[in-house]
Amino acid sequence: MLTRRLLPSPKYPFAILRTISTSTPYQKSPSLADITPNGAAAFDARQKEFRDSGKTAQQAKEQQDSQLVNTSTPASTSASSFSNGAAPPETNDASITSDIATKFSLGSLSTHSSEQARESTSQHESSKRKGALSSLIYGTKEGQQMDQDIEKSFSQVLARGKYVHSIVFHQVKPDKVDEYIRLVGDWYPRMASLEENHVHLVGSWRTEVGDCDNFVHIWEYQRYQGYHASLHSIASHPEFPAFDTQLKKLITHKETSLMQEFSFWPTTPPRKLGGLFELRSYTLHPGNLLEWETHWRKGLKARREVMEGVGAWFVQVGDLNTVHHLWQFADLEERKARRELSWGVEGWGDTVHKTVPLIQKMRSRVLIPMPWSPVA
Predict the structure, then answer these.
(1) 188 and 204 in contact (C-beta within 8 Å)?
(2) Number of C-alpha atoms within 13 angstroms, CB side, residue 273?
(3) What share of the chain is helix, strand, coil (3-state, %, to 5)?
(4) What pLDDT digit, counting tens, does each position of 311-369 carry?
(5) What are phi and psi of 202, to 5 degrees?
(6) How far apart (Å, rounded) are the C-alpha atoms in residues 204 and 312?
(7) How many C-beta atoms surround the C-beta of residue 140 within 10 A?
(8) Taking the model in full, what pTM does it have?
(9) Coil, helix or strand at residue 313
(10) Is the dihedral of CA 357, 315, 302, 37 positive or negative?
């Protein structure tokens, strides 16, 4: 199973594997009616606990890094040892834990010093070579900075290439919803829990406002190699033919796209904050993805002050020129209040002004998490 992120608190215990529910399939389909209209305070408390646990993990990671630096041998000594035939030192558990803690700290819209370090490195590298646009934009500091930002954006978008995500839409027959929930609610958690499948289930949701009886599932793989390996492993499971045959009887349409997460917005680790989700999908004019990423990198700093994000992805295979943003709210009234608060945060209005012209069309869905969803 892929190592991803750490959750250091009683409610979010340390674990290398994603937490996957394998409980008995649920009979009742979740709905918006299950959410109480006065749960904002409880949602905020869970959100604070989740973010605080991320900060704790980050502090532990930084302390480990500091200890490792202080106890490490000089590079020259190591190089000499290797040249005499000695084997390089193996990666220890502390470095593995440190790496996982880093990944956790990047979730839930948090920014991290390692991201800043990569930005600094990328900017340093871009200053060594002449940018593609430097022959058109040059002379002023503003023009030079624009060139650096564009090159830096390319680098950072590609830097999150370690993970590939798939988003799967199932349109279920209205009279087969309960049967679908029983079938998928048993199969998906089992497949995600098998280490040989090399896959994480980010979450499963039912559309409450939008395409009703439409279910959304987001999966995480380690690059495209992991995607191929996962498909092969699951398809080779002895129970897969029966599952696949039954699933085809319950749905009328299936759509899958392969996506990559934006470098500035890593996908959140498992969490249970409650409430509802909003999936906002944008179809951009071809050629505008980089500009979208550049503006949203700045706009997210404003949004994260008042809203809780799950992740943001751009499609690489499938519905091209499409970007998906997934948000989480206590309820619909709280969603309205949070979005209005965004306009009072410096920088958000400018982001909207610059990104709206890039959009061909946009779509919003209100989603309810399924009982087995790791992010709920």
Answers:
(1) yes
(2) 29
(3) 45, 20, 30
(4) 999 999 999 999 999 999 999 999 999 999 888 888 888 999 999 999 999 999 999 99
(5) -70, -45
(6) 16
(7) 9
(8) 0.65
(9) strand
(10) positive
